[in-house]
ROK family protein (Pseudoclavibacter chungangensis), 263 residues
Amino acid sequence: MGKATDKAHATAIGIDVGGTGIKGAVVDLATGELLTKRHKIPTPEGGDPGDIRDAVVTMVGELRELDTPLKKSSPIGVSLPTILKHGVSHSAANISQRWLGLDAAALFGDALGHEVTLVNDADAAGVAEVHYGAAKGRLDAVLVTTLGTGIGSALFHDGRLFPNTELGHLQLDGHEDYERFASAKVREREDLDMATWSARLTPYYRHLERLFAPDVFVVSGGISKRADEFLHLIDITTPIIPAELRNNAGIVGVAWLAGQHWG
């Protein structure tokens, strides 16, 4: 997934923009460890591009002021809940429709005066798990799913990412957009117990088994810290394991990709 990180890029800033929160930190690219306390603010209501840009610029400025090995030339990565191709956003499931067709690379790059690496938020979380976490060293088929505001996905084989899969939006069992029936946010909103929620997740993971036959599922997102309460209730054949980086995965993954000059 790119060339080896050079010594000039031992650190990077990672910003993870989600449907409900924006998180960021300075990351040690050799270890994947956060060199700062994780900064977090709510995603601006409505998810407008200008509002998110301003929030990201403020957060980057705050991180740059901290006492870290960060350099002026250190890479900056931003993950977004959208399909991204050549810096242009092509979907807007949990953010403003104004993102559709937007040159997001120019939006952030111009505001920061610095080249910015952009990647889908679930892809960033998956990269973190493959490079530093639960799937580190695996060269078989790995499918990372993020359970949060929606359902994200990141597909890997031989350690290589196939980007922008967005498998949370599959049509299944009469649901046009399955994440609207089975995301972690839906579990909270409907006050579902883990057994009821897992009964919604089981057909989803069985469908992914049929489509991709992965060797392992890795479940990411904040809910993964409660994996022992529900993963065993998802009735599938494929091994399913919790992510290790949890809510830091998006930050760490997009920082690593920035260090690799992804895209």
Q: What stands out?
A: Residues 64 and 128 are 22 Å apart (CA to CA). Confidence is low (pLDDT under 50) at residues 2-7. The chain has seven helices and twelve strands. The two ends are 10 Å apart (CA to CA).
